[in-house]
Design a protein that fits this description.
With 702 residues, this protein is an alpha/beta fold. 27% of the residues lie in helices and 21% in strands. The chain contains 21 helices and 30 strands. The strands form 8 sheets. An 8-stranded mixed β-sheet has the order 12-11-8-6-7-14-15-23, with helices on both faces. Strands 5-4-17-16-18-19-20 form a 7-stranded mixed β-sheet, with helices on both faces. It has a 4-stranded antiparallel β-sheet with strand order 21-22-24-25, with no helix packed on it. A hairpin with a 5-residue loop joins strand 24 (532-540) and strand 25 (546-551). Helix 17 packs across helix 18 (609-622). It binds 5'-O-[(S)-ethoxy(hydroxy)phosphoryl]adenosine. Residues 289, 334-336, 410-413, 435-440, 461, 534-536, 548, 550-551, 557, 562 line the site of 5'-O-[(S)-ethoxy(hydroxy)phosphoryl]adenosine.
């Protein structure tokens, strides 16, 4: 962890010392109409989920599921921080999301697929049809691929119904799925195949994005090659067709390795596969996420606790009823989609909408036309999408006669300005908003208002959700009190069923990353001694609401997608001429943050647009197009401490037009002015706007 004393003395401000002087925002109350129909109307719910009733309070969520065998122990804390939930219980996630709804909801739409081309009509899949298709796919995975419980399979699928069908087919067999976001490059997919030890890759030939039918199969070839180079052979690549019966990719199929799912499925028509009763603690899926250092971490989520937690929070915080048409615009390739497009909504027998493309295609009215056409009444998206829709079509929503009862924002802090547009224009002042703060690691929501009970406050996520007890510690481990006006590191005091089990294959890193910092006694068997460290800065207002400031480690949140600085810098270093690379986050009106890259070349090499293009391409190829740096600056040298560490903090100040502070203690102070001129021109440009907190602190942990 950071050794503060080693960094520049004069400018060092630890996150806990930053006083935050926001003006308090006014409250907005949920309407009576909303509250009267809400799943949670009892103001005593937090009492029911208080620490006094921990851990038994979470039975309430487990009871929302159908168990093949009841659990014996709610929480086993014998081996901290490797908690076990609902021990002894057996269940199947696919059974809970599909089979159990057949009696009552057989003909109700489970999923509605909306392709990006607007002329293609939406396609609804009933629970019965989903049941059939999940069974057939499970039969194929079991009998054609030989997959069984505990095996891992990598999915690199875009946003079509084939993705949840494949996930649920895996879950039916107890096969651990690892879906890699479709926008990740083939190489990024390959390293995740290798890490998870998958022998099978499931992909799709093509998908629509911003008006183009992209070749996606090509990424499978690169992924398989990358995995092989890293020591993991892939025997089978299953290729779904975007248009069944037609191959939409120019990339050839590899004989004996690549198979069209549609063709294979012909052998499994109508086959039923018994859902395998899985231990509550059996892993359900892996979801890779970025940290500040090292390779991406495979967050391993359990079957029972995870499913119970997403079902409970979907019901109470998303306020989903079986009669609702729910649309979460996130990608299923991220945790939001797993928890709040697939597992949670389907466990509650909702109708969940899957939209393939970008929200502003072909124009900023698209989401609202979809909402009208499908009768969407719960809408879920990110600040990035809200900012983009607001910019390109602030008056669009009012042209359309949809009505949302409930809306969610997730993934990044939302500016009160953007929040108010969401509330006024998109929600038409009718919809309640929840700002849900959580992470890939946490399975489900951590902080949010309870929509029918709590008033909303723009820019604040709210209190802990039922059963989650957050606390803010300063750098010395002292608790910061609500309303003290200082920010610190937000942690969760207690275990909860949605928390990941471990990092796949790296339990030590799990303990170190999420628990070591504030553990008073590493030998303690008492869960009270093991607060979960989220890695975000936050402050708590006097009313108990948490305002999330952003990452305290050097993770850059681009449009709500987490990118590790090391990942980007390593991609840059694959270019021969590059000696050193440093990435910093830059504030962006739409995407929140975007990466900018500083490069020092090896002696004897000259910077050129061609080198810059190769650096950009390296990022796109190794990580994905969404990681594309906004600027690449070739600098004569990096600003460094006397011990030779690159001062990213100084570079971040230059990129964000901030005062660089005192740099006289650096080994090469003169280079700072050279770099500043290169980026900003002769006259220093200092922005007067308040410094976003994560940018102010970026690089201070070095
Ligand atoms: C950030 C996404 C402010 C935060 C579910 C967190 C948020 C990281 C919010 C996790 C929010 C997520 N307000 N910041 N409502 N939600 N974040 O793993 O920094 O992709 O640590 O999970 O996003 O990103 P992840």
């Amino acid at each position: 962890m950071a050794d503060k004393s080693k960094t520049s003395e004069n400018t060092e401000v630890s996150e806990a010392q930053i006083a935050v002087h926001w003006k308090e925002e006014e409250y907005f109350k949920p309407s009576k109409k909303f509250t009267e129909q809400a799943n949670v109307q009892d103001p005593k719910i937090r009492e029911r989920f208080s620490l006094k009733h921990f851990p038994d309070c979470f039975k309430e969520y487990a009871d929302m599921l159908t168990w093949f065998q009841p659990y014996k122990t709610v929480l086993d804390t014998n081996n901290p921080p490797f908690w076990k939930w609902f021990v002894g219980g057996k269940l199947n996630a696919s059974y809970n999301c599909v089979d159990r709804h057949l009696a009552q909801y057989r003909d109700k739409a489970a999923l509605i697929f909306v392709g990006e081309p607007e002329e293609d009509p939406p396609v609804a899949l009933t629970y019965q049809e989903l049941y059939i298709r999940v069974n057939e796919m499970a039969a194929l995975l079991r009998d054609y691929c030989g997959l069984k419980a505990g095996d891992r399979v990598t999915l690199h699928l875009p946003m079509t119904v084939e993705l949840p069908i494949t996930m649920l087919a895996c879950a039916r067999l107890g096969v651990i799925h690892s879906q890699v976001f479709g926008g990740f490059s083939g190489q990024a997919c390959g390293t995740r195949i290798q890490d998870s030890g998958s022998h099978v890759l499931i992909t799709m030939d093509a998908y629509w994005r911003a008006g183009k039918l992209l070749d996606h199969k090509i990424n499978a070839d690169i992924a398989v090659q990358t995995a092989k180079d890293e020591g993991q052979p892939v025997d089978k690549v299953l290729v779904w067709q975007r248009y069944p019966g037609k191959y939409s990719s120019p990339t050839p199929m590899v004989k004996g390795r690549d198979f069209f799912v549609n063709e294979l499925l012909a052998q499994y028509r109508g086959q039923l596969v018994e859902p395998v009763p899985m231990d509550a603690e059996a892993p359900l899926f892996l979801m890779y996420t970025s940290g500040s250092t090292g390779k991406p971490k495979g967050c391993q989520h359990r079957t029972g606790g995870y499913l119970a937690y997403v079902t409970g929070t979907c019901k109470y915080i998303q306020d989903i009823h079986p009669s609702d048409t729910y649309w979460c615009m996130a990608d299923i390739g991220w945790i939001t989609g797993h928890s709040y497009i697939v597992y949670g909504p389907l466990a509650l027998a909702a109708t969940s909408v899957i939209y393939e493309g970008v929200p502003t295609h072909p124009d900023a009215g698209r989401p609202w036309r979809i909402a009208v056409r499908l009768g969407v009444n719960i809408f879920h998206t990110s600040p990035t999408a809200i900012r983009a829709l607001r910019k390109s079509g602030p008056d669009e929503p009012k042209k359309y006669a949809y009505h949302f009862k409930h809306m969610t924002t997730v993934g990044e802090p939302i500016e009160p300005e953007a929040w108010r547009w969401y509330y006024d224009a998109v929600g038409k002042r009718e919809a309640v908003i929840v700002d849900t703060w959580w992470q890939t690691e946490t399975g489900g929501f951590l902080c949010s208002t309870i929509p029918g009970i709590d008033p909303m406050k723009p820019g604040s996520a709210g209190p802990g959700v039922p059963g989650i007890h957050p606390v803010i510690y300063d750098d010395n481990g002292e608790e910061l009190q609500a309303g003290c006006g200082r920010a610190g590191n937000i942690c969760i005091r207690n275990p909860w069923p949605g928390i990941m089990q471990t990092i796949w294959g790296d339990p030590e890193r799990f303990v170190k990353t999420y628990y070591s910092r504030y553990t008073k006694d590493p030998k303690s068997k008492d869960w009270h001694d093991w607060p979960y460290v989220a890695g975000d800065g936050a402050m708590q207002a006097a009313d108990g609401y948490f305002r999330i400031l952003g990452r305290i480690d050097d993770v850059i949140n681009v449009s709500g997608h987490r990118l590790g600085t090391k990942e980007i810098e390593s991609a840059c270093l694959t270019i021969t001429e590059v000696a050193e690379a440093a990435v910093v986050p830059v504030a962006d009106d739409i995407k929140g943050r975007v990466p900018e890259v500083y490069i020092a070349l090896k002696p004897g090499f000259e910077g050129s647009p061609e080198v810059i293009n190769r650096i950009i391409k390296a990022n796109e190829d190794i990580i994905g197009k969404f990681a594309r740096p906004k600027h690449v600056y070739i600098v004569p040298d990096m600003p460094k401490t006397r011990s030779g560490k690159i001062m990213r903090r100084v570079l971040a100040s230059i990129s964000n037009r901030r005062d660089v502070g005192d740099v006289t203690t650096l080994a090469n102070p003169a280079v700072v002015e050279e770099i500043r001129t290169l980026v900003q021109g002769k006259e220093a440009v200092i922005s007067k706007e308040a410094v976003p907190d994560d940018i102010a602190k970026f690089g201070q942990n070095e």
